[in-house]
Amino acid sequence: MRIDVAQVGWTVRNKTIIEGVDFTVTSGETVGLIGPNGSGKSSLLRCAAGLLKPTHGAVRYDGHDIRVFGPRGIAQHIAFVGQTSHTAGELRVADVVALGRTPFRDRWRGLNSTDRLIIDAALAHMGLTGLATRTWRTLSGGEQQRTHVARALAQQPWGILLDEPLNHLDIRYQLELMEMLAATDQTVLVAVHDLALAARFCDRLILLNQGKVTAEGIPHDVLTAENLRNVFGTETEITRDSGGRLTISHRGVAPGPESSSTPG
Amino acid sequence: MSKGIRITVVLALALGATACSGAPHPSAGGDKKAGTVVRSCGQSLSVPEVPSRAVTLDQSSTETLLALGMADRMAGTSYLKTSIAPRYRADYEKVPVLSPKTLTSEQLRAANPDLAVASFAELYSKDRVGTREELKESGLPTYVSAVDCPRHSRAGMTPFDLLFKDYENLGRMFRTENRAQKLIDSQKKQVQRAASVSKKVKGKPSVVWIYSVFEGAPYVAGKGGLPSEMSRLVGAENAFADVDEQWPEVSWEAVADRDPDLIVLGDIPELGQPGDSAEDKLRMLREDPVTSKLSAVRNKRVLTVPGIEMDPSVRSTHTLGLLADEMKDRGYAR
Amino acid sequence: MLRPALFLGGVALLVFSMAVSVRIGISDIGYADLGRVLGSRLGLAVEPLPPLVDSLIWDLRIPRVLLAAFVGATLASCGAVLQAVTGNALADPYLLGVSSGASSGAVSVVVLGIGAGSLGVTGGAFAGALVSFGLLMFLLRRSGLDSVRILLTGVAVGQLFMALTSLIVMASGDAETTRAVAHWLLGSMASARWDGVAICATVTAAGLFVLWSCSTALDGFAFGQDTAASLGINVRTMQNVLLVATALLTAVAVAFVGAIGFVGLIVPHCVRFLVGPLHRSLLPFSALGGAVFLVVTDAVARVAFAPQEVPAGVFTALIGAPVFAVILRKRGGL
Fold it and tell me: Which of C88, C213, C226 comes nearest A107 by C-beta?
């Protein structure tokens, strides 16, 4: 499924959070969203997932404006994994993953056998089969994050939008998750903090700064020393190894007034 | 004797009334067993037989029935505000106490009464013993003191007239008209004796009646209640007669402002709250910076009476007597 | 499956507790008498009981037990729903200020004497609940029903109507009104009659069905509104439907029995331990649990301090507060 973000802007209380953002994620592509804190990554993802109504522009799935889908229709196309979502309840892992079936459930019907197969597969995919009956409260941060991703998979979406899914994850699971996102057929738009992981697993990157797209393209083109100095305010040395992989090493804070401040 | 309330002693007509109440029909000959019908606060009570299991819903009703000598016709009493007057105590102990507080709907029904007597219409509410209508449906006549529903009485009747009306009504229902008449006569005499004081009273001394003190504020007698009437009878006037409420809550300052010639304090030590005993009230009067300067307080022109007697009851003439004596003793009356 | 068996067990427990509860009170009723009361209503050839005993069972006890069951079910289900919608484990039907609004409405009716009688008070409470709820929605119209904001606005609205109630009571200054209001605010089943049961049964059945039909959506609220929306739930619409439904249900419950706290708070928490947090099971089990809890609590309230009857709301708080403390400890926070 192709996701078009067309001239999207979002303004709240006279404060412009994102402005004129325009890009396309083609079907099956894995696109990384990078940028400093407050650059508008979360708002952009929420607009793309239909959770925020953009004040300007439109979001389209396969060319259809998502406003015509309605919440349920959107949820049948796209899964969204937010940053920190916790629950006070005594939900078990399997219950949380089962929430992914919500967009497909009739209000009177319980889970059917197909739902259960899908849930089991999602649990297995995220290595959670053994934890299925554990309650949310007893999980580590990483296990909770993986449960959320499993829940998104149980939605069997055409596209997955994830907001900083690597937080709380041990490095092993960070790699596993990024590998999975890169390998999947689904269209993926993911906000990532770790530039090296973004560079390694994403087909393309979108660099966001102060609500606007500063650079867009393959990692090699986006992650330049100049871009990083302008956006993050760091002096960075970027090298490419024999396999074509980028190595990013931060040398220090860039001098001068150029250093980017982060709004909010 | 006033005929303000329509009282009908039905003989032949009782056939219809008793049929409604579900009691067995009296024999067609219309003999002496025919019932009594009494009007009470908008309802006509049909009492086919002399009540033998009367239940009283408050202390005043209890004491009235005891004064009429009906102890052995009562199935229970309830809602004691203060201790029973000594002269009724022996009889009182013969009757079961269903509840020391207000009766519940279940308690009343469980006592299987054939008549309920109350001084206040508000005791018949859904959250207490149930409404009079629903009790009537279950065949229980409910009496409410005429004092508490002046709307249903002839205009111009004083609280004492209404009290006497109660004795008359109860006397009819219990077939003890003579005893009721005796009680009426003796209390009338007490009223007349007190009223005779008024002729000798100089000017119009003002009286403040303090019933209770709740959270520092005194509740005093306002317009229209028994205290106003008692004041009038002895030639004085209720200082708060202009407040259109029976027991308004006022401030000590307002009491001082009226600068009464006499203060009457209700004594209800059994309630057990600070301010319920006359002693407490007197102390508050003396300690308050404003009221302590009142001439009534400084000159100890303070009369203590049992609090319950400020409300209309068979004991009220006692307080009226105390007041009349006080007027004489203090020299308002020559 | 375990659940249907457990549910049937719950129903059996409810029937059992109602059967036991209907017997206990100021006078214990035998099942033979109960049979005669029911038999005579069904037109069977049984000898009817004396009218007052029949009235005690049929007019008071049976409606009271039924009303307790309906109100308990309502409050517990509303608590479970509000906890999900606001994402706050402390949410409870009284949180939204609905009970305070209902109190103001009932008091206005009593004081101003609009359409007096039992339906008047109930109608006033209902109108008050709707007014306070309307105010709540008006204040929340822009904020997107954020969970903390709902809580705080609810508290503010509640305080406003509490003050309004006090003001009305103060201005009326009538001791009987004050008493009736205080009694009503404590929450008591003493006024339960068939008319209340009929209305409560209808509204409870319809309301709980609506809430239950939203079970899947309610589960989706577990991780907050964003996640709920991403699962395809129309958050705003769903919140409106659920809040209106719970307000109506609470208003009816409050109108008939006053403010009974803690049922909506502790029952859902306890039920979660038993059947987990998914609303398809949680809601029916909460309804059952709430019904059993209030039926039993009210029976205890009737007899614990006999002959005095303690308002059921006092007992739900006495039991509820410590149970809630234990739940909080066990969960290690919210």
Answer: C213
